[in-house]
Amino acid sequence: MTFTSTRGAILGAVAASAVLAAGIAPVAAADPIKIGSVVSATGSTAFLGDPEAKTLKLVAEQINAKGGILGRPIELILYDDGGDANKARTFATRLVEDDGVVAVVGGTSTGATMAMVPVFEDAEIPFISLAGAIEIIDPVNPFVFKTPHTDKTACMKIFEDMKARGLMKIGMISGTDGFGKSMRNQCMNVIGDYGIEVLVDESYGPTDADMTPQLNKIKNTEGVQAVVNPGFGQGPAIVTRNYAQLGISVPLYQSHGVASKSFIELAGAAAEGVRLPAPALLIADKLADDDKQKPVVSAYKQAYESSTGQPVSTFGGYAYDGLSLLAAAIERAGSDEPAAIRDAIEATNGYVGVTGIYTMSAEDHLGLGTESFRLLRIENGDWVPETAAN
User: Fold this and answer.
1) Which of 21, 41, 104, 226: disulfide with 49, CB 3.0–4.6 Å?
2) Confidence grade of residue 116 (pLDDT, cut at 50, 70, 90)
3) Residue 366 lies in a domain
4) pTM, 2 dp
């Protein structure tokens, strides 16, 4: 794949190390449709942003190989914020003011996304986020959408499973990062709907290397039947290892924020038996033949793994859905005008992606419910569908 420089990248030469790519080579003489992105391909959240960046390039290449959109190539202008929300906002401004993009897919973390939202809202540029927190789309901002399930939906999926198993008294240990804090709050907001009671509520910081004291408190709290760990990054892997070291025997539920092979590698043997809500992508080879998502999930998995030599992750899947949804919206709009694109994204109905089947509206800029989550368990270092009998 050949990449070409754009005016925005030239103006940003002083930060050239932060530019991952600046355009997909044209497939025709027509003016390209400029699509921007800011992801965290390096830094502390690179395990999320690196597969996103690679996926965006892959999808852009696939689109252009098929003739582009509206008979025009897309030009992907992609920046790496290194996990820094301030840099994310700077690059967002550059995409609008210098690069002249008509839409944006990106925002690896909730923090980076929220830093960029005002830029794109003010410029009235459609923005599809790849981050998890519900605050991104609730309340609804006219030009802001997202592809990952919300933390609220993850809580609901977990509590549905707990209630079905009679696990009604639980402990919580949450990260204090943006995602962990948000998911913890969302879980507390909906838990009463399931009749589940939190007996002990602990937390840990982003740089903490040992959660034994908090887990000991949970272990010694009488009546705890299960534990939920809202969080992402290395924290949940440390929690999982400490959990096993302390011999805690009640079920441990993680969030969709750890739905990647890197979590299993970091947690090691301690990950065995961990349950979590995740997209169908993680069990692509185990989906039924009549599952509507199977063709899309299988095609993405094969293309990504062939292209990168790395296992597919749900985070790359969010990027796949983001750019694919955007491309479909531009085709339906018949225009690259930002306002028309925004309207077409909002009108998405029954779009089958790797994360779920999307149906958006003026009141819902995500379009996924709990049914799009699969409850999984880690077994022999891999993901398997969880059932009430397991």
Assistant:
1) 41
2) very high
3) no
4) 0.83
CA–CA dist 20, 23 (Å, integer): 10
Q: Name the band, by pLDDT with cuts 50, 70 and 90, for residue 179.
A: confident
**Three-state SS at 157:** helix
As a whole number of angstroms, the distance between CA 223 and CA 52 comes to 41
**Distance of alpha carbon 335 from alpha carbon 348, whole angstroms:** 16
Does one domain contain both 198 and 260? yes
Distances (CA, A) of 68 to 20, 31, 91, 353: 21, 11, 25, 19
Mapped onto helix, strand or coil, the DSSP state of residue 78 is strand
Residue 354 located in a structural domain: yes
What is the average per-residue pLDDT within 22-49? 80
- Counting the structural domains of the chain, the total is 2
User: And the tokens for 388?
Assistant: 């009430």
- Strands 33-39 and 19-22 come out as unpaired
pLDDT per residue as tens digits for the range 286-328: 999 999 999 999 999 999 999 999 989 899 999 999 999 999 9
Based on the fold, state whether residues 233 and 262 are members of the same structural domain: yes
Q: Is 45 exposed, middle or buried (0-12, 13-18, 19+ CB in 10 A)?
A: buried
Q: Collapsing DSSP states into helix, strand and coil, what is residue 153?
A: helix
- Cβ proximity of 41 and 338 under 8 Å: no
Name the residue type at position 252.
L
Is residue 365 domain-resident? no
Q: How far apart are CA 110 and CA 132, in angstroms?
A: 6
Using alpha carbons, select from 87, 79, 82, 78 the residue that is nearest to residue 42. Answer: 82
Contact 211, 245 (CB under 8 A): no
Distance CA 261, CA 274 (A): 13
241 alpha-carbon distance from chain centroid: 24
Helix axes 178-190, 110-123, angle to 10 degrees: 90
Domain limits for position 234: 151-278+373-385
| Cis amide prior to 277 (ω within 30 degrees) | no
Residue 248 domain-assigned (yes or no): yes
Where residue 319 sits, what CATH number does that domain have? 3.40.50.2300
List of residues 6+ apart from 117 with CB closer than 8 A: 127, 136, 141, 144
Q: Distance between CA 313 and CA 281 in Å, rounded? A: 8
The confidence score (pLDDT) of residue 257 equals 85
Cα end-to-end distance, the chain, whole Å: 45
Question: 44 vs 59, which has greater pLDDT?
Answer: 59
